[in-house]
Structures are given as structure tokens and as C-alpha cells.
Specification:
alpha/beta, six-stranded parallel sheet, 40% helix, 573 residues
Length: 573
């Protein structure tokens, strides 16, 4: 008979068996049986945050960057509700992770106990799986089921709510927990396309004059860059991404033309507009990508690991293939090998015209004055940061305008960009940068944050000071919720409300919380200071005042083709 263990110890044993290395969270009375057990368990670490939302975001970022689950943990009631925004970001952007909430004693759940809340009902809409665990004998099976749900198909967060007496009480005959759980060996396997489907798609791609790969977030999750680019090169097919697909392929590759989204690059929108066949790989064709399904598309071949995603939108023009996009790309290269060269030659003139357009597009946002003094154009800031940041820099833009301006960032290596897209949750970049520094303390991380988002996550500067890492935080500071203010100015006759703040010196704030920081007002000084920061290898916060008149909604490089045509018609009239 095995030695009795507390339920909390069994939870931690299972987390380590399933490969979880980090638990992010804010401790409370109900969590202690789990968090105390972490102290004595090698291979797993508790990282405490200033707010539970940051813990959930760190879980999300870890999942995006590694493909493996971390955990976030909270106490009951307000602790659990504080997790929800970050959990929603992980769910909408398909990032795996364990969401652990710790409830009151089982007999008092749903009664008027302190901080009572129905965690399962609260969290269920924002996770793949949610369950109350109210008995010690159920812990192992519940965690195994949750893990399988988190990693199979389109990955995502899963939720387990533990009754307090379940984790504080002893499990008299605890289950044997393997050091490495066997589920880890197969959960990330993905299906391959059937030969019939491959033959059908091969004929369509070979016949098409202007096929385009539209790569979604699945490209990041599948780590499919090499396979997708090999397909593009073999057949002479240009590649564009969704907003969520940024980072899945380098934008410096000669066949990659940027992101298509509501405020995507005008160049990528033109490429997709030319297409007579779209290969939507790991692309859900959601509202953000398709301007709420108003975007006109030609015939579509949609490839996804989840059959339920295929044909959900644009069903009448969609041919579906259930497959991992990487294996699909490899198999399609094989299936078209005998005729690929002729198809590629037939697209050479079109690709040459696209290459010319790409050069003009990049020239349109070139920095006119490398020594400009502030307030600075966000476009100039991003182009300047790319000049000086190391090749392998991980860029983490926050929600709002920083994400839009990041279209001007050259992604030189795949999987070096993460951003909240599906949920658009602000306060993402700083906690994510901390998680990234835990994964690799030496990797340069550039967090591009608006002052509005930083205000929502400001306490985590102290967490950054405690954790450390080669993290440079650049604040695009317009003393407002800039994206919304610009939308008000554009669509409400210049009238604004609820968007402006007083002046904050975030450099001074950072220094007060243990991180080097300062206000930087010129491009030359920014270039020098960022280079110094990355060379030093420690965290820094650079507060950069920006020009409020440079509007992301009307910036020429981002204006969609239809908007340009409408504007030209108005000028002619």
C-alpha cells in the first residue's frame, strides 16, 4: 500500500508527470495545499504575480512559445474571476494550459461561504474543458482527461476546480504517477490528408493561375514554416497570413507578403485580392481576417486538424481537408512534383509584379529622418527598432495600435512574434515578456506596449524586476487609449470621450519598481538606448512619446484596397 499523500501533492505530482514546469498565480488560503507542495517538488516552479490576469497571460504566452502547457492558479471568487480575461485570450488564440481554481470545501460549494462562486460555470465558455474535482480519488483521471483536451486537435486551455478539502485532505491509497506520463508521447500527433483529398487538391492547385496560401494561427501551432515555404517555392505560390498567423513564416522570405486582416497591410490585401484559389491553411476564416465575412474570396481549399472548423464560413465555396498543415504541405509537394515546374513558370510574371509591389510598399513607410525628435511617428519607431534589435528578437505587441504598427516589423525568424488577436485582451505584452524570459533568459524580447495597456498591467513591472531577463519594454505613449480615440476622431466628427489620460513618466515608474527606465524623445537616442539595453541583457522600460496625429486607421500602408478605391472615387467626384 502506498504512503498517503495530500490531494495537493497528487495534483503537483500529476502536473510534473504531464510536463508542466511553471505555475503562475496569486496564492490564497484555498490554494496553499497545492502551492506548498510545489516547494518540495523538483522540476516545477511557482511564479507569483501582482494580479491573476497576468498569471493567466503568462500561461498563455508559455503555451504559444513552447507548445506545452503551463498552469495558472487562483483562489476562489475574485481570484478566479481575475483570471478570466487572460484565459479568454488563450482560448481564442488556441494556446494550451491548465487553469486551476481552488474552491471552498466541497460541502459548502454553492452555499453562502466566503467568496463563493461557481467557477465551472464562470470559466466554461472560455476553455475547452471544465470540471469540478471534489474527491481525491478523481484527481489523476481528471487531470489526464484535461491534458488530452488541452493538447489534441486545436489546442487550448482547460480548467479544473478543486474543492479545498479535496486538496487539503489525504488520499489514503494515492495512485502511482509516472515520472513521464505516456500521454505526452502521442497527444501532439496530427492527422495526414487522405490520398483522395490530396489528388483532388493537387489538380486544383496546378490548374489555378494565381493560387495564394493564406496561413493562419495553425501555422504557428503546427510549427509549419519550413513545410509551407517549401510548398510555396515548389509551386510558385505567394503566402499571406492572418493577423494571428504573423510569425508563422518570416516576412523577409521572397514569397511572403504580410498579413491580411481588418487593418492588415495593403500589400497583402492586394495579393489575396488577385487570387483565383485560396489555400487556407490553419486559418479559421474568422471575423478579424475577413472583415466580418464581407471579404469576397474565390474558391477555397481549407486545411485544418479540426473538422468542425472547415466550412464553418464560406461553406459553399470551400473544399475541406482534415490534416496537419505541415504534413499536408509536404504531401502536396510530392503529389504535384511532376507538373510543379510548369505551374511555377506560368506564375513567374505575376510573382515578379508582386515583388515590385512589395518594394514599393516597404518604401512607403521608410524612415525619412533617422534623427527625428519627438513626439515620434509610431511607424518610424517600429522601423527603427527593427534596425537595432537582434536578429532573433521576440516581438510581443500588445492589443490596440501596437499590434497594427507591428505590421511594419520584419519577422526574420519564424515563431518570433506573439500577440493577442482573437480576444484582443489588453495588458498582454508585459506578462508575456516575463514568461518568455523564463523560457530563455538570454533571448532578446521586445515588448511593444501602449500606455493604456501598460496601465492595466503596471504592477507586473515588479514581477519583471524579480524574474529578470533580456527584456526591453517600449511604451508607445500618447496618454490615451489611442486606437479608440483615433476611431472616434475618424467616425464621430472628431468628438472624443473616455480616452485621454494625464501625463505619466513610465521611466520613473519603472525605476521606482526596480527596473531601469527613462523617457526617450528622439529616434537616434532610441536606437542607441535599445542597442545598449539588449547588450546589457537586463530589463529596461523606455517611454517614447508618440505623435497622436499619425492615425493607424488611415495610415497609407494599412488602408485596404477597397478603402483606397472608395477614397479615389470621392476625389474624382
Amino acid at each position: 500500500m502506498s504512503t498517503p499523500r495530500t490531494g495537493g501533492q497528487v495534483v503537483v505530482d500529476m502536473l510534473t508527470s504531464l510536463g508542466v514546469e511553471y505555475v503562475f498565480g496569486v496564492v490564497g488560503g484555498q490554494t496553499l495545499a497545492i502551492t506548498d507542495a510545489i516547494i518540495d517538488t523538483p522540476g516545477i516552479r511557482l511564479v507569483h504575480t501582482r494580479h491573476e490576469n497576468a498569471a493567466a497571460v503568462m500561461m498563455d504566452a508559455y503555451g504559444r512559445l513552447t507548445g506545452k502547457p503551463a498552469a495558472c492558479i487562483s483562489t476562489t471568487g475574485p481570484g478566479a474571476t481575475n483570471l478570466l480575461t487572460g484565459v479568454g485570450g488563450a482560448y481564442r488564440d488556441s494556446s494550451p494550459g491548465f487553469v486551476i481554481t481552488c474552491n471552498n470545501n466541497g460541502e459548502n460549494i454553492h452555499k453562502d461561504d466566503a467568496q463563493n462562486a461557481d467557477h465551472v460555470e464562470l470559466v466554461k465558455p472560455l476553455v475547452k474543458f471544465s470540471r469540478l474535482v471534489a474527491h481525491g480519488s478523481s484527481i489523476k483521471q481528471a487531470m489526464e482527461e484535461a491534458y488530452v483536451n488541452a493538447l489534441t486537435g486545436n489546442p487550448g486551455p482547460v480548467h479544473l476546480d478543486f474543492a479545498r478539502d479535496t486538496i487539503e485532505g489525504y488520499v489514503e491509497d494515492p495512485p502511482e504517477v509516472p515520472a513521464v506520463h505516456p500521454s505526452r508521447g502521442w497527444v501532439t500527433e496530427r492527422p495526414s490528408a487522405s490520398p483522395v483529398a490530396l489528388a483532388r487538391v493537387a489538380e486544383r492547385v496546378l490548374r489555378a493561375e494565381r493560387p495564394v496560401v493564406w496561413l493562419g494561427n495553425g501555422g504557428n501551432r503546427a510549427r509549419g514554416a519550413d513545410d509551407v515555404l517549401a510548398l510555396a517555392e515548389a509551386l510558385g505560390v505567394p503566402v499571406v497570413t492572418t493577423f494571428n498567423g504573423i510569425g508563422s513564416v518570416p516576412t523577409t522570405h521572397p514569397l511572403v507578403y504580410g498579413a491580411v486582416t481588418r487593418m492588415g497591410t495593403a500589400l497583402a490585401g492586394d495579393v489575396l485580392g488577385d487570387a483565383d484559389l485560396v489555400l487556407a491553411l490553419g486559418n479559421s476564416l474568422n471575423a478579424v481576417s475577413t472583415t466580418r465575412w464581407r471579404r469576397a474570396l474565390p474558391e477555397i481549399v481549407q486545411v485544418d486538424v479540426d473538422p468542425a472548423m472547415i466550412g464553418r464560413y464560406y461553406s459553399e465555396i470551400t473544399d475541406g481537408v482534415v490534416a496537419d498543415l505541415g504534413s499536408f504541405a509536404r504531401d502536396l509537394v510530392t503529389a504535384t512534383a511532376g507538373r510543379a515546374a510548369d505551374a511555377k513558370a506560368g506564375r513567374a510574371e505575376w510573382l515578379a509584379s508582386l515583388d515590385t509591389a512589395r518594394g514599393a510598399w516597404w518604401e512607403g513607410s521608410a524612415v525619412a529622418d533617422a534623427e527625428a525628435e519627438g513626439p515620434l511617428s509610431p511607424a518610424d519607431i517600429v522601423r527603427t527598432l527593427r534596425e537595432v534589435a537582434p536578429e532573433d528578437t521576440l516581438l510581443i505587441p500588445d492589443a490596440g495600435n501596437p499590434g497594427v504598427w507591428s505590421f511594419l516589423w520584419e519577422v526574420r525568424r519564424p515563431y518570433s512574434y506573439i500577440k493577442p488577436v482573437g480576444f484582443g485582451n489588453m495588458g498582454f505584452a508585459l506578462p508575456s515578456a516575463i514568461a518568455a524570459s523564463l523560457i530563455d533568459p538570454d533571448r532578446p524580447v521586445l515588448a511593444l506596449i501602449g500606455d493604456g495597456s501598460l496601465g492595466m498591467s503596471l504592477g507586473e513591472i515588479e514581477t519583471l524586476a524579480r524574474v529578470g531577463g533580456n527584456v526591453c519594454v517600449v511604451v508607445l505613449n500618447d496618454s490615451s487609449y489611442g486606437n479608440i480615440r483615433q476611431e472616434q476622431e475618424l467616425h464621430f466628427d472628431g468628438r472624443t470621450t473616455g480616452v485621454d489620460f494625464g501625463t505619466v513618466d513610465f521611466g520613473m515608474v519603472a525605476r521606482a519598481m526596480g527596473v531601469d527606465g527613462e523617457v526617450v524623445t528622439g529616434l537616434g537616442a532610441l536606437r542607441k538606448r535599445v542597442a545598449e539595453a539588449f547588450a546589457a541583457g537586463g530589463p529596461v522600460v523606455l517611454d517614447v512619446p508618440i505623435d497622436r496625429d499619425v492615425n493607424a486607421w488611415t495610415f497609407p500602408s494599412f488602408v485596404a484596397p477597397k478603402q483606397r478605391a472608395d477614397a479615389e472615387e470621392m476625389e474624382e467626384a
